[in-house]
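Section 5.1 Outputs to date
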Amino acid sequence: MYRTLRPAATTKTAPPDALAVALFGKPARLPAEYATLDRRCGGALGRAVKRAEFVADAGRVTTIYPDTGPGRVYLLSLGDREKFAGQVLRNAAAKLLRIAWEGKVRSIGLELTPGLGDAIDAQPAGRAVGDGMAAANFEFIKFKSDQNDKRQLSAIPATLQLHASATFRKGLSWGIAVGRSTNIARDLAASPPNVANPAYLVRYCRTMARQIGLRCRIVNAAQAKKLKMGGLLAVGAAGSTPPALICLEHRPRAAASKPPVLLVGKAVTFDTGGYSIKPGASMMGMKYDKSGGTAVIGAMHAIATLKLPVHVVGLIPTAENMVDRTAYRPNDIVRMYNGVTVEITNTDAEGRLILADALAYGCKTYKPKSIIDLATLTGAVVVTLGHEAAGLFCKNAALRKKLLDAAEDTGQQLWHLPMWDEYKPLLDSPHADLVNSGPRLASSIQGAVFLSHFVQQNKQGQPAWAHLDIAGVSDTDNDSAMFNKGPTGYGVRLIVRALEGL
């Protein structure tokens, strides 16, 4: 795809070689807002919408080649106005990007606001278009050796310039910038486990931090042992490289004295299930078990790029859950960073163990005012919500609202699930403080309740905490308008918008 998407000030650059317009439904005639543009195109737009074969399904893109004016015009169909949502615009923008790429287009004028009217303001419309285009502008082909792919890519323009009004362009720039960070998360998530092991993520984060202006500190396995991070060490004991806790910090001067927002992301680089081993078919795709951690890496990249005036710390506990004589076993009892003891009943419930140590360490070390963790934690959340939404567990009303508002704004959907005290007995152990996995009932809720034992009060009080179970949305098995089969980078846009709200 294009190496760069670049918003351009229309008044300062050459006219674009293509235009994009937006239409609701199938109008009997072209809306009056596009009358001037239609005259420039010799009436080609008006004739196109009157044709019987013109299809106005939401998200569909039709290409017109007028005899005069721009070389081509793309009609973005948005469906019924009453049913319009930002996701329709994201999907249409993603299709537009792919069509432009195939046509080797170098610049597009986004004349969308006349057609959108008051259905959506210009700035959020720009964000949605940037979201969709950036998502479609991703391919993971670095391990392909087909020379035809390389020749094809070399013939495509390196940059797509996007012309738009100033307000629309502001939102567009946001969408493209956060999309670039999201694609970093997707690239890391897609990287195979023989490459992207814990040591690789450590090296990557160190390099990224230097380049983007983040602080980076690593708690290595030897230090984790001194700190008594029993969960992280147990899960990573048989890994090809030692486990680690990656600490990234964005501390702008304006917010340096304020307690941070803590982001925590599970990064199990491959999950066999350990001695509670997964069936062979269930191991496929387990490279995506690091998607919570890669989302935090992507979010920290976006936060630094946008220079958000918020103190943010990102913790990425990373380990490889393998089988070997050194691996942890069912019936083992491990002592966590905060002293809580956990009886292992299922070595495939490993993500909560590394998250628990990171949460407890983050609470004590950074004394955050609020915490958001992301993890591909349970298959049960997929049974509950499918692939349409992540599970949200949050008792704090203000933080919950910020996240739900951000989900609505970004199209990265959340659904709130309970975390009542009545679920706590499911994790009782006769020999330790907790078990890491109880009976089958309420499995996703059990995961959240387990983590709650490691979110601890500090001198500012009890931090607001939200747990996001992203197992159903972190990757997709099917191609869609925005995503090819593979990782979605879920959580990066959502977290950045929520932080802006905070």
